[in-house]
């Protein structure tokens, strides 16, 4: 569990994760509207050198942010389970030139059993605070999560 007391903390957590990314990772981002999922993607993009600041992809379904690693940012809020096979998400999973970040990935149940991924669940915790639960599926994702937890604990701006 990561405790974010502000959007700046969420950006910091994302930057710590960005430093661990090698390409091909899949991030499942869950949480209510306004819980910090897009702020987290913004932190990834900034840390990876994107010149474009992420915005909610809700009305575009997918946006690409180019940087040291690309970010393929999907927002599945408006996608029904029946539509999942037609949106092209699967062709982005595991691309080595970037990371695929999927908001509202609850709609993407087919991620389970299709390789490694990290799941971050953003929960409102009063004011600007967020409790961010994290889980990993697969050996490389588990190692990445363990490294992130260690970096967060040893960060000079430790918030958890």
Please give a handful of descriptors for the protein shown.
globular; 160 residues; single chain; Rossmann fold; 26% strand; seven-stranded mixed beta sheet; alpha/beta; 3 helices
- Average pLDDT over all residues: 88
| Number of continuous helical runs | 3
Poorly predicted segments: none
Largest sheet: 7 strands, mixed
Question: Which CATH class?
Answer: Alpha Beta
Instruction: Compute the separation of the termini in Å.
Output: 8 Å
Class from helix and strand fractions: alpha/beta
**How many distinct domains?**
1
Describe the fold and architecture.
This protein is of the alpha/beta class. It starts with a strand and ends in a 6-residue tail after the last helix. The radius of gyration is 14 Å and the shape is globular. It has one domain: P-loop containing nucleotide triphosphate hydrolases (Rossmann fold). It has a 7-stranded mixed β-sheet with strand order 1-7-6-2-5-4-3. Helices cover 24% and strands 26% of the residues. Strand 6 and strand 7 form a beta hairpin. The longest helix has 16 residues.
How would you summarize this macromolecular structure in one to three sentences?
With 160 residues, the protein is of the alpha/beta class. Helices cover 24% and strands 26% of the residues.
Set down the secondary structure blueprint.
Layout: E1 2-4, H1 7-18, E2 26-31, H2 37-47, E3 62-65, E4 70-75, E5 98-103, E6 117-124, E7 130-137, H3 139-154
Parallel strand pairs: 2-5, 2-6, 4-5
Antiparallel strand pairs: 1-7, 3-4, 6-7
